[in-house]
Amino acid sequence: MSNALLFELRALQTNGISKSIKERYNEFKSFAGKSEEDWFSELCFCLTTANSSAMMGLKVQDALGFDGFYNLPQKKLTRELKSLGYRFYNKRAEYIVGARRHFGIKEKLQEFENDREKRNYLFENVKGYGLKESSHFLRNTGHDNCAILDRHIIRLMHEHALISALPKTITERNYLQIESALDNFAQKAKMNHSLLDLYLWYMKTGKVLK
Question: pTM to 2 decimals?
Answer without folding.
Answer: 0.94
